[in-house]
Design goal:
The chain is of the alpha/beta class and 238 residues long. The chain has one domain: Aldolase class I (TIM Barrel, Alpha-Beta Barrel), CATH 3.20.20. The protein is 37% helix and 32% strand. Strands 1-4-5-6-7-10-11-12 form an 8-stranded parallel barrel, surrounded by 6 helices. Helix 3 runs parallel beside helix 4. It is globular. The protein starts with a strand and ends with a helix.
Length: 238
C-alpha cells in the first residue's frame, strides 16, 4: 500500500481542517518545501498536496505555489484544489506534478472529465469523491465540501470506467482521528475493482494503516499531530 503524507495549504501555510470546515483550522509551523523534503528523507515516494483556497474558491489560488513545489519536490506529488479546466490540469502536470486530482469537476462536468482522462491518461488523473454518509448511503459533496451533489458514490464512480485512481474521503472522519470508515472502503474495493482506491479521512493509528486493504492511504493530521512518525507509517504500509 502506498502512503501519501498529506499537506493542506491555506494562504501558503500548512493547515488542517476538521470535517472540511474552514472555521475549524489548525495551522502548523512548517515550510511546505522543507516538509516535502522531510517526507522524502523519511522514505516516502509520494505526497498529497491540496490548495484549500482553490478548493473553496473553485478556481486556482495557490497553483503557482503548487507548480513550484511540483517542480522542486524530491518525490512524486499528487496535487488538488480548484482544478476546473483542462488548462488548470495541464499547467500542473507540465510543472512536474505526477498526478492531479479532479473532484467537483468529475461530478459537475463529466464530458470534460472524460476528455482529460483521454488526453492525459488514467495514471495521471485521480478522481476524488468525497462523501457524507446520509441515511447509510455515501453521497458525494462538491465545492470544497460545501455542497451536496445528491449523487451517490456508486453512481458517480460508474461514470468513469476508464479511470484508474480514486481518492475516497468520508468527510465525517476527516481530521477527526477516529479511524477510517472501513465498511465504506471495503464496499468500494469490492464494487469498484477497476480503481486503485486511496483511503482518506480518519487514520489515527498504525493499526488503522495495517488494517486497510486498499491501494493507498492519505494521512495528514495523525502525522502532523505526532501520533506516529512517517517512518513508522511507511513500515506499517509495507
Amino acid at each position: 500500500m502506498i502512503l501519501y503524507p498529506a499537506m493542506d495549504l491555506m494562504g501558503g501555510r500548512v493547515v488542517r481542517l476538521a470535517q472540511g470546515r474552514f472555521d475549524e483550522v489548525t495551522a502548523y509551523p512548517a515550510d511546505p518545501g522543507e516538509a516535502l523534503a522531510a517526507f522524502a528523507a523519511a522514505g516516502a515516494s509520494w505526497a498529497h498536496v491540496v490548495d484549500l483556497d482553490g478548493a473553496r474558491a473553485g478556481a486556482p489560488v495557490q497553483h503557482a505555489r503548487l507548480a513550484r513545489l511540483a517542480a522542486e519536490a524530491p518525490l512524486h506529488l499528487q496535487v488538488a484544489g480548484g482544478l476546473r479546466t483542462r488548462d488548470h490540469i495541464a499547467r500542473l502536470l507540465d510543472a512536474g506534478a505526477a498526478r492531479v486530482v479532479v473532484g467537483s469537476l468529475a461530478v459537475k462536468d463529466p464530458d470534460l472529465t472524460h476528455a482529460v482522462l483521454a488526453e492525459f491518461g488514467g495514471e495521471r488523473i485521480t478522481l476524488s469523491l468525497d462523501v457524507r454518509m446520509i441515511d447509510g448511503a455515501p453521497i458525494v459533496a462538491t465545492a470544497g465540501w460545501t455542497e451536496d451533489s445528491g449523487l451517490s458514490l456508486w453512481d458517480a464512480a460508474a461514470r468513469y470506467p476508464e479511470a484508474r485512481h480514486l481518492l475516497l474521503t468520508d468527510i465525517g472522519r476527516d481530521g477527526m482521528l477516529q479511524g477510517p470508515n472501513f465498511a465504506l472502503l471495503e464496499a468500494a474495493a469490492r464494487r469498484l475493482p477497476h480503481l486503485a482506491i486511496q483511503a482518506s479521512g480518519g487514520v489515527s493509528s498504525l493499526d488503522d494503516l495495517s488494517r486497510l486493504a486498499v491501494a493507498g492511504a492519505v494521512v495528514g493530521k495523525a502525522l502532523w499531530e505526532g501520533r506516529f512518525t512517517l517512518a513508522e507509517a511507511l513500515s506499517a504500509c509495507a
